[in-house]
Amino acid sequence: MAQQDGLETPPNLPEHRTTTTDKGHFCMARCICGWRGPARRARSQARTDAEKHATD
Fold it and tell me: Where is the segment annotated Disordered (predicted)?
């Protein structure tokens, strides 16, 4: 397998894929690793939580 600089996820680090879901008046961010963000009234804040999680 050819390796490209900086484009592959190292095998020991899980990949983080986040989504946001609406539940009533609240929005939550979730990740495939099992992480869940707090319920937010602002969808933009839930997205910010997800971005922060993915980069931490």
Answer: 1-21
